[in-house]
């Protein structure tokens, strides 16, 4: 299939596909006329990238998953490098949650103090 068809099937722009190609995440052989020639394996790669980006992965974080698919695995997370990215992302999320908990606790303390000052008139 040509780039427009792949974009249509994946629900993204041809510009995004070209960007994936520039970043080395998508490779397509060229026909003699210069057109890219995509198949179902390319659609799987694009969908893997999209799925991971939807849950917060940076584009570069998708590389091990793409490489795992290219190696012939059924799933992009069947390889050790992909699992390592999952572990790193979970650690990042847990760090964010700890930071957010601190912020929430500080906000609650400020709210409680503000409500107390308002209801008692104390400063």
Structure summary:
With 123 residues, the chain is mostly helical.
Please provide a written account of the structure.
The chain has 123 residues and is mostly helical. It contains 5 helices and no strands. Helix 3 runs antiparallel to helix 4 (63-70). The mean pLDDT is 94.
Q: Write down the oligomeric state.
A: single chain
Please provide the count of β strands.
0
Return residue spans where pLDDT drops below 50 for at least 5 consecutive residues: none
- Total number of helical segments? 5
Proportion of beta-strand residues: under 5%
Main beta sheet strand tally, sense and closure: none
Q: From the alpha carbons, calculate the radius of gyration and give it in angstroms.
A: 23 Å
Q: What is this structure's SSE topology?
A:
Elements: H1 3-10, H2 14-22, H3 40-54, H4 63-70, H5 80-120
Helix pairs in contact: 3-4
Task: Provide the descriptors you would attach to this structure in a database record.
0% strand, mainly alpha, 123 residues
């Amino acid at each position: 299939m040509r780039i427009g068809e792949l974009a249509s099937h994946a629900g993204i722009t041809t510009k995004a596909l070209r960007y994936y190609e520039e970043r080395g995440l998508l490779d397509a052989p060229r026909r003699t006329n210069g057109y890219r020639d995509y198949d179902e394996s390319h659609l799987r790669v694009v969908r893997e990238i999209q799925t991971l980006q939807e849950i917060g992965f940076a584009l570069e974080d998708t590389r091990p998953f793409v490489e795992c698919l290219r190696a012939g695995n059924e799933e992009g997370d069947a390889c050790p490098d992909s699992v390592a990215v999952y572990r790193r992302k979970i650690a990042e999320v847990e760090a964010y949650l700890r930071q957010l908990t601190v912020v929430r606790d500080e906000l609650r303390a400020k709210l409680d103090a503000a409500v107390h000052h308002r209801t008692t008139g104390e400063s």
